[in-house]
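Regression test attached.
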Amino acid sequence: DAKTTQPTSMDCAEGRAANLPCNHSTISGNEYVYWYRQIHSQGPQYIIHGLKNNETNEMASLIITEDRKSSTLILPHATLRDTAVYYCIVRASGTYKYIFGTGTRLKVLA
Amino acid sequence: SAVISQKPSRDICQRGTSLTIQCQVDSQVTMMFWYRQQPGQSLTLIATANQGSEATYESGFVIDKFPISRPNLTFSTLTVSNMSPEDSSIYLCSAEPGETQYFGPGTRLLVL
C-alpha cells in the first residue's frame, strides 16, 4: 500500500498558487518525498523531491513540515497546462521501488 | 536526467497474441523498470530489469506472462504474452540514472 494520502481532487484558479498537500505520517528518517505529475495519461513527469529541507526548482516548491509527517507542493502561478494528476511518493534512499497512490487530480480553471 | 522513448506508442491486438514493447534510454543506466497502468488506475510496478541479471517481478506478475529482456545498459523490452482484454492498459518503462526515476511516454495497448 502507498505510504501517502492525498486529497482526491482540487481546483485552482489560473494564475493563483496551487498548494497540494500530502500526508506521510509513517515516514522514516531515510525516506525522501518525491512528487510527480501525470498529464492526460502521458508518462509521469518528475517535479521535485526532498528529505527534510524545503526545496525549490523551476517548476515548484516543496515544503516539508519539521516533523516530516506532511508536505505541500506549491505551483506558484498555476496555468491550464498544470492540470494533471499529482502523485506524492515516499522512498528510502538506496531503494528503488515507487509505490504510487491514487494522487490528487488538479484542475486549473480559467 | 534521462530521456526515454517507447515503441510502439499504441497498438490494438487480438486476444491470444503477444506484443513486445521496446524502451530506449538516452544514457547508460543500471536500473530500468516496467509499470502497468490500467484504465482509471494508478501505476503498478511489474518488474525491475537490471542489465546482466534476470528481471525481478513484483507479486502478481510472472515471467511467463511478462518476459523481459535487458541486453544492454540503454535498452529493455517487455513482452505481453497470450493477451486477453484484461491486459488492456498503458505500459510504461522508467529508468533511474541517479536517485530519481524518469518515465517514458507509455504504450497504450487495447486487446480485443
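Expected vs. actual: identical. The mean pLDDT of chain A is 93.
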